[in-house]
Structure to design on (1193 residues):
């Protein structure tokens, strides 16, 4: 493309700095929101008003903000569940199944302790809540490790496996909580029994303690990737499994390990939504909705480019968008699924922007073709 | 009983059509994990178009067209822009999942049209799918076009120096593949189960994806796999026909998925690989940069 | 060669001409005013070292690259190639050194691929008859229905030649035609090449090292150096010395010093080792040998005779089917790679980019690949990146790696520099056993000499060195023991002073009589 004596050219990007990556991600986000306004316009809604509504409900409203924070915790855990295998070059899209297994493990322990029959347990919460966390993590980890083992041992495509395991877990939850299943609540059809009140997760300023847990884990993961031998091994395997094997990294153990670690995150996300969020404290009949939300973890992980620290603001933003989206859907009488549509549009825009991770748009004057004044499209295209 | 078999064949039709589309793309070296997304699009838009026009033909045409569109979108991302094929496929799946939930929601409920007539009690689409399998086999193994497609999937740089336009061949395959996936979706929503509901596919596309791996990239084996899974799927919906009272119906729903995993495992064993070799296209999933 | 035969109908007529071909790259003039002509029925070799501009010229001839200046004439007509297709249409065929074939396809499918007359529905029978005819004419023997992956390197080359001929090539470019062939295969190829020349084809072999081949086959030789045509001879008036002088620009002595080092105790002992290839056939068969401290044990062989699989088994990257491997007396037959590194093995893989390094990693991280498990560089599960950086910087100086700093990504380094990093990383560990798999492949003269000297230095430092090379001269120059390998077996183990080109060449081609004569 020519502009006067200058020319816009697309070139291979020699290297990608963190700063550029962030700009590209922000650019993708802005373009996605721009595209999404088309849907608002088609539904007869002023996009500006809609976005204002989303943001103010999600981040400023006293009813909306706690919802946003709870969703943020959930998404942050799901994002890191995606990120750990992703750094090893593997795709975990089984956060859904893993978080179901985490939740089932929690309610399984409680059922064993008689919570379903008695509505309470004899064990002190100070002991039991940590146990529940461990159990949730273990449930997710073991379930995810199956996918890792199939990948490491038999080289079976992990995308197919984790997705298929999502469906298996989905129907297992139905079996457990519906039609007389072992976790079915005494009153209602299609829900699990209630968490005993004493075991409701402690709140800090109205927010479950899992907030600190999720943030702490994100920081820990960042440290792991940056400094530890394990982090080095994961990164090496992610860039080149053959070279990693040459360097002595175990090609069977590593996939199992990263999936199990991802499963821990997802299992905790299951604990969070079904045993820590105020007002829920059970596996609800619409548990499928929470499972679907886990897919936001993929998008957050990709936008954060696998960086656990970057995933914090990204997950917060997306938590807000999905809560706010749901809200204005009702307020502006839009069709169901605004948050789903947003998920889709964000994802596909992000895919398009992947191109700019490897390429850049360069503005060149015709005479001096070596003049490398580069313009990052991530900054400029949304404004144009 | 006959009803059950007819329904199984119809279910297998959906697997066959979608997996055939995936197989074509993979043979040319393009992995499309967004198969379920394209099916959702085809099913939803086909449903809406058919209901509004009161015409099945319009419904199917719209489904095929949207499939072609999404196929070319996947092509644009993965061939032209060189984006990772898995990333692009995931994008298309999530786009399909998210957008159809929103767009299709006002149409929740039955289609409300006369059912498509059967041929000797069997869905006409089943017969069509078998014909398409034969056509696909013939094209891939007996024609010059097929040789070109296979070469592009095995070793694109060799194909290029032999005078084959790699990008064009791959585009053709993903677009035709997308059409088949869109069509498969419409067969679901217009014929197999003409009721629109949120995320109604629940894994059909992913099983179809697995079927391509099972098939060793051979259309006839693919047809066999589809028949088996059509039967399994139908069984999982109606276990009382064969084994009344064994397991909860929810447990039965997991059966096709569990068997998918088991087949994948058996196929990956050393024994199986030694016996059947690896038929996987060598350049599958790898972006090709000319020159 | 009978040059009298050049007097044919079209024989001797100029069919291809290059005038003033110039191609520049940032910082280099790869081709500088090159003139060149080909006559029908002529074999006209182009000789030059790596970096002399051969590859660029070849790409221009075949339409892969376009010249900045200069013209190409085919049968007197000025032509412009936009892609290889234009070249193919005008009767130019190319036989690539890194074979351009589809492994999963049959020979016939490869040959007819992309042929305009292949027909909508393939007629394989007709194609086979036509290819058979070509084979008879030029003396090629090949199973047309075999899949390409089943073929030897020599057979693959035949497929490439057939493909070009089937497309109607009248001018044939051969890129390093004998580099992957054992001597007897070379002989067969040359007689076919001569048959083609007798049939009025023009043949342009591009050759780097093998001067005797040039002398025995070609009619004319053009020598390139620094992107220019330095000399052109009628082959009858050239000698090996004169060619070498023109090519290198000085008198050459192809010698690296081979110091005698007192050998010590055995380090690597391999006993009746067998292993499968990735394709599932027995690639290594009952191999037994010992490598001692202070010696270089060279395995000579044409690519694909099991030496790669052997190296992988020893490095722990491939499971053996039978046999026993010990390192310093301790059995490591089934040990995982990490345990071998820790036991003092250092492996320099042949796949520099795919296995030996990680392109997206910085040099520091690449060096860490061999140190992240060392107590000195990683403690309590934490990698000591600062210390590894220091080590990397030392390596860059010691091994003269051309790089701005240690944070450059490996993918931005040239092949020679990358190999130096890998070599430095492995040798700095002070390994007991160094396995160097094709360590100098694709490197220029300077880097090759550097690598060879480093291996000799390792030997002086009492390491046992196992060298695997397809370059017979390299093996002869620096090894103390030479094992020619053919179809997975050692054809003998010769001490350096009993080995010579002819004898080892015959053994690595599997000539039994020679083996039995021992």
């Amino acid at each position: 493309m020519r502009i006067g004596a200058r020319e816009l050219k697309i070139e291979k990007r020699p290297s990608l700095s963190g700063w550029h990556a962030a700009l590209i991600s922000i650019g993708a986000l802005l373009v996605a929101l721009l595209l999404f306004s088309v849907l608002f316009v088609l539904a007869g809604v002023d996009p500006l008003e809609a976005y204002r509504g989303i943001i103010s409900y999600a981040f400023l409203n006293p009813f909306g903000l706690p919802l946003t924070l709870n969703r943020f915790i959930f998404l942050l855990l799901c994002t890191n569940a995606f990120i750990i295998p992703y750094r090893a070059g593997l795709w975990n899209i089984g956060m859904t199944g893993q978080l179901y297994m985490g939740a089932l493990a929690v309610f399984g322990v409680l059922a064993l302790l008689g919570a379903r029959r008695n509505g309470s347990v004899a064990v002190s919460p100070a002991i039991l809540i940590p146990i529940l966390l461990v159990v949730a993590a273990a449930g997710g980890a073991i379930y995810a490790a199956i996918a890792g083992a199939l990948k490491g041992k038999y080289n079976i495509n992990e995308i197919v496996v984790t997705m298929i395991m999502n469906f298996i877990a989905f129907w297992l939850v139905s079996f457990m909580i519906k039609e007389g299943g072992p976790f079915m609540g005494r009153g209602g059809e299609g829900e699990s029994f209630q968490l005993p009140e004493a075991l409701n997760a402690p709140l800090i300023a109205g927010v479950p303690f899992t907030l600190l847990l999720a943030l702490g884990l994100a920081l820990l993961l960042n440290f792991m990737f940056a400094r530890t031998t394990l982090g080095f091994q994961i990164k090496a395997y992610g860039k080149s499994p053959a070279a990693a094997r040459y360097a002595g990294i175990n090609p069977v153990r590593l996939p199992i390990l990263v999936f199990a670690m991802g499963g821990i995150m997802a299992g905790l996300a299951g604990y969070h939504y079904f045993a820590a969020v105020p007002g829920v404290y059970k596996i609800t009949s619409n548990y499928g909705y929470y499972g679907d939300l886990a897919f936001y973890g993929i998008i957050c992980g990709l936008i954060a480019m696998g960086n656990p620290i970057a995933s914090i603001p990204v997950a917060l933003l997306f938590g807000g968008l999905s809560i706010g989206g749901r809200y204005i859907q009702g307020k502006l009488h839009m069709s169901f699924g605004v948050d789903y549509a947003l998920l889709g549009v964000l994802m596909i825009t992000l895919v398009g922007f992947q191109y700019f991770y490897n390429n850049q748009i360069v503005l060149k004057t015709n005479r001096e073709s070596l003049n490398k004044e580069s313009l990052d499209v991530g900054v400029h295209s949304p404004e144009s | 009983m006959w009803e059950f078999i007819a329904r199984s064949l119809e279910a297998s039709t959906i697997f066959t059509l979608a997996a055939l589309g995936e197989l074509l793309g993979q043979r040319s070296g393009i992995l499309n994990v967004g198969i379920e997304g394209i099916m959702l699009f085809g099913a939803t838009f086909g449903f809406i178009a058919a209901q509004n026009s009161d015409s099945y033909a319009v419904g199917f045409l719209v489904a095929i067209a949207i499939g072609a569109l999404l196929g070319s979108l996947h092509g644009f991302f993965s061939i032209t822009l060189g984006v990772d094929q898995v990333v692009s496929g995931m994008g298309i799946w999530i786009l399909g999942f998210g957008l159809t939930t929103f767009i299709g929601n006002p149409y929740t409920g039955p289609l409300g049209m006369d059912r498509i007539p059967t041929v000797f009690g069997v869905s006409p689409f089943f017969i069509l799918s078998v014909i398409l399998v034969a056509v696909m086999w013939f094209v891939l193994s007996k024609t010059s076009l097929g040789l070109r497609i296979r070469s592009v999937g095995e070793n694109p740089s060799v194909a290029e120096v032999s005078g084959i336009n790699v990008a064009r061949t791959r585009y053709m395959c993903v677009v035709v593949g997308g059409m088949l996936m869109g069509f498969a979706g419409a067969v679901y929503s217009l014929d197999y189960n003409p009721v629109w509901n949120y995320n109604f596919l629940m894994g059909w596309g992913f099983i179809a994806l697995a079927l391509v791996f099972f098939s060793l990239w051979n259309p006839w084996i693919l047809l066999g796999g589809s028949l088996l899974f059509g039967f399994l799927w139908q069984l999982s919906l109606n276990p009382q026909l064969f084994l009344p009272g064994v397991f909860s119906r929810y447990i039965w729903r997991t059966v096709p998925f569990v068997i998918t995993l088991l087949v994948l495992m058996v196929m990956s064993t050393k024994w199986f690989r030694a016996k059947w070799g690896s038929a996987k296209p060598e350049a599958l999933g790898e972006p090709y940069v000319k020159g | 060669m009978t040059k009298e035969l050049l007097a044919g109908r079209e024989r001797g007529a100029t069919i291809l001409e290059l005038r003033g071909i110039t191609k520049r790259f940032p910082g280099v003039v790869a081709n500088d005013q090159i003139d060149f002509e080909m006559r029908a029925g002529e074999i006209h070799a182009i000789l030059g070292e790596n970096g002399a501009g051969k590859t660029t010229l070849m790409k221009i001839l075949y339409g892969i690259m376009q010249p900045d200046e200069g013209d190409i004439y085919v049968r007197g007509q000025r032509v412009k190639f936009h892609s290889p297709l234009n070249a193919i249409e005008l009767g130019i065929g190319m036989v690539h050194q890194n074979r351009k074939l589809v492994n999963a396809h049959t020979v016939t499918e490869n040959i007819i691929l992309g042929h305009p007359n292949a027909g909508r529905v393939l007629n394989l029978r007709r194609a086979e008859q036509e290819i058979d005819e070509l084979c008879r004419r030029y003396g090629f023997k090949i199973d047309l229905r075999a899949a390409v992956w089943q073929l030897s390197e020599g057979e693959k080359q035949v497929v490439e030649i057939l493909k070009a001929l089937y497309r109607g090539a009248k001018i044939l470019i051969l890129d390093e035609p004998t580099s992957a062939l054992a001597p007897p295969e070379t002989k067969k190829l040359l007689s076919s090449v001569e048959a083609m020349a007798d049939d009025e084809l023009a043949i342009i072999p591009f050759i780097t090292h093998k001067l005797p081949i040039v002398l025995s086959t070609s009619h004319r030789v053009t020598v390139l150096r620094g992107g220019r045509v330095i000399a052109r001879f009628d082959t009858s008036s050239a000698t090996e010395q004169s060619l070498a002088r023109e090519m290198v620009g000085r008198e050459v002595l192809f010698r690296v010093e081979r110091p005698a080092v007192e050998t010590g105790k055995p380090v690597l002992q391999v006993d009746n080792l067998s292993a499968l290839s990735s394709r599932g056939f027995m690639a290594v068969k009952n191999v037994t040998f010992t490598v001692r401290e202070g010696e270089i044990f060279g395995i000579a062989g044409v690519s694909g005779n099991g030496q790669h699989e052997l190296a992988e088994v020893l490095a722990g990257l491939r499971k053996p089917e039978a046999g026993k491997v010990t390192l310093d007396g301790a059995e490591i037959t089934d040990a995982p790679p990490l345990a071998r590194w820790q036991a003092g093995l250092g492996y320099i893989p042949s796949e520099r980019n795919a296995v030996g390094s990680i392109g997206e990693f910085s040099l520091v991280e690449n060096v860490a690949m061999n140190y992240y498990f060392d107590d000195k560089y990683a403690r309590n599960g934490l990698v000591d990146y600062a210390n590894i950086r220091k080590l990397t910087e030392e390596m860059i100086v010691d091994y003269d790696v051309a790089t701005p700093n240690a944070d450059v990504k490996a993918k931005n380094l040239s092949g020679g520099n990358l190999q130096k990093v890998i070599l430095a990383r492995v040798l700095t560990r002070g390994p007991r056993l160094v396995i160097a798999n094709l360590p100098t492949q694709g490197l220029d003269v300077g880097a090759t000499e550097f690598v060879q000297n480093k291996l000799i230095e390792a030997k002086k430092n009492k390491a046992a060195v196992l060298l695997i090379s397809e370059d017979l001269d390299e093996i002869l120059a620096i090894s103390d023991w030479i094992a020619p390998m053919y179809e997975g077996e050692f054809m003998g183990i010769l001490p350096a002073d009993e080995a010579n080109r002819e004898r080892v060449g015959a053994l690595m081609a599997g000539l039994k009589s020679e083996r039995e004569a021992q």
Remarks:
- Residues 256-344+433-438+464-518 of chain C form a domain with the Rossmann fold fold (CATH 3.40.50.300).
- DSSP finds 17 helices and 23 strands in chain C.
